[in-house]
Amino acid sequence: MSFADLGLSDELLRAVTDAGYTEPTPIQQQSIPPVLMGKDLIGIAQTGTGKTAAFVLPMIDILGEGRTRALMPRSLILEPTRELAAQVAENFEKYGTHHKLSMALLIGGVQMGDQVKALEKGVDVLIATPGRLMDLFGRGKILLNGCSLLVIDEADRMLDMGFIPDIEEICTKLPKERQTLLFSATMPPVIKKLADKFLNDPKRVEVARPATTNTNITQFLIETSTMKKREVLRALIEAENVQTGIIFCNRKTTVRELNKSLQRHGIRSAEIHGDMDQPARIAELERFKRGDVNILVASDVAARGLDIKGVSHVYNFDAPWHPDDYVHRIGRTGRAGAKGTAYTLVTKEDAENIANIEKLTGHKINRVKLKGAPTASEDEHEEAPRGRKRKADEDKGAERPERSPRGKARKAEPERDEDRREEPFREPRGREEPYRETRRDEQPRRDRGSRRRDERDDGPDVGWNGPIPDFLNYTLAAE
Ligand code: AMP
């Protein structure tokens, strides 16, 4: 199937050709025709599948047809984070070159005055994060009566971040007669309910999760200890002379400290996390995209959905607490048919997290036990020297996990709150509890994963994508 078969205008086909795309991805093939016909749509797909173009392309043609003079937005796209909002805006610029649509970005962390001015002229496309949009409502600065097309993107991420009440409120401010598109990587009950309430007879399309089915990504678990993590990480980066790699950490403090440590060791690195303001984040990202630095150290929320070309390696400095985050993290590499490698540094404390990841993905990940890695008793010994001076710890890679006051099961919470803090005008609503319950209800998918794994249990203890490369044994055995 070609783009020309989907019913897009000639101008848009030109823009798509200019972008270098020859064939629509499955989500584009299935979504574009019904959206052009004015139907509501539920798209179950995650970043990396081409889902942004699946809604941006038909929207450009729909909005390009009629123009109202009303001084209010004609369409609204809701994104959970500023980075994703900015990325969607870039997509409109790329594909909309022949259409002259006006666009406004309404995100936290940038001056509100300019955003309001842009809105007062009336825009074809408004791209917003829920926090900033709600704030403008509160100030009476915005009307959505003329908004006949709504996109709710990354709905499950919105749920994670506690944005669903805002989204419901926003939906009630739009005209009832409208077209609504909802995209989500998963369909937990809360999202299903939201769709039932605000979408009208939607067409449902679903595509495979790219990272779990992406055989372009070779994955390894590197067994190490908390104390040796930094050393091991540097050895991995240097052994393959990595030019474009992303390192994920579970906490913002780890991001900052690891970046400093890498720089001290002569590795050209930058950082991105939720405590940075928007211009600082964009500046760091640009440095990485331009190749001024080779390594980007990132937290989950700040790097969510980022589409950076040519990332060859993803390193999980910390094994993620949520198995979904693993899938999202490694999905930053192996994009658009390229090969990628993902390393996850694991200590014995990560056993449960790794088991959950393998359950979710249905694959056992290659496990590399480095020669010279500490024995279990040595690793236990590391827990002891709490009083040691930080400087001495630093180059050995130690960073003691912060204990959440709510106990081990909730330790992922601080990072989950990250983007809520990024929306400066938003008050926490304390609604996470019921939502977390519903996330646990995603059991069927995980069960599928575990069944697949059980079936493999009598096979060899290596997974995915072939043998362990020699350099891992040689390079790291020498530490
Ligand atoms: P997304 O899922 O929207 O984050 O898109 C993932 C990547 O796929 C982006 O780099 C897009 O530019 C790229 N992309 C989108 N559509 C196509 C296509 N039809 N062919 C090749 N690449 C595409």
TrEMBL record:
Residues 32-205 form the Helicase ATP-binding domain. Residues 368-479 are annotated as: Disordered. PROSITE patterns: DEAD_ATP_HELICASE, HELICASE_ATP_BIND_1, HELICASE_CTER, Q_MOTIF. It catalyses: ATP + H2O = ADP + phosphate + H(+). One of its GO terms (biological process) is response to temperature stimulus. The keyword Hydrolase applies. Residues 383-456 have a biased composition (Basic and acidic residues). Its EC number is 3.6.4.13. GO terms for molecular function: ATP binding; hydrolase activity; nucleic acid binding; RNA helicase activity. GO terms for cellular component: cytosol. Residues 216-381 form the Helicase C-terminal domain. The keyword Secreted does not apply. Residues 1-29 form the DEAD-box RNA helicase Q domain. It is an enzyme of class 3 (hydrolase). Keywords: ATP-binding, Cytoplasm, Helicase, Hydrolase, Nucleotide-binding. SUPFAM superfamilies: P-loop containing nucleoside triphosphate hydrolases. A motif (Q motif) lies at residues 1-29. Belongs to the DEAD box helicase family. This is DEAD-box ATP-dependent RNA helicase RhpA. It comes from Sphingomonas kyeonggiensis.
